[in-house]
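Ex. 9. Protein: thioredoxin-dependent peroxiredoxin.
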Amino acid sequence: MYNEGDKVKDFCLPGLSAEGEEKEFCLKDFLGKGKKVVVYFYPKDNTPGCTTEACDFRDNLNSIGDKAFVLGISPDSIASHKKFKEKFELNFPLLSDTEKKVMEDFGAYGEKKMYGKVRMGVIRSTFILDEDGKILKAMRNVRAKGHVEKVKKILEEL
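Predicted C-alpha cells for thioredoxin-dependent peroxiredoxin:
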C-alpha cells in the first residue's frame, strides 16, 4: 500500500477522456507535464456521495486545472462511466479498475465498516502526486461533501 513519499509505479487502465473518448490511460501520460496529478478513488457511479464528489471536481476544475490533472477511478464499467459522465457533464477522465488492482495498490480497496458490518469495498480516497509520480498527500476515508475544497487548499499550499 502506497503512503506519502512513495513513488507510484506506472499503471494503465481503460477509461473515458474529458471529451468522452474511450481509450487506455497510463499514469506516465500525465507525469512530467508541469502539473501535479490528483487521483481519486470512488465507490460507484451515480450514487449520491460519488455524484457530489464528481460534480465538485467538475465545478472546481477551472481553479484546479492549472495546478493538476484530475483522474477519477472506480470499479465501474466503461458503459457505466459513459452514462455518469454524460448525465453530469464531467470534464475530466474517468478510469475503470474492474479488477481493483490499482485500488489495492493505493490501499483504496479493502475492509470497510458500514452500518456495523465489515465488508470489502472501495475506500473513498484521494492522492496528490508530484510531476514524477511521488505521493505528496494521501487522504483515505474521505467524506465526499467538502472534500474538493480541501484538495484545492492543499494544491495551493504545495
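Check your answer against this statement. DSSP finds four helices and nine strands in the chain.
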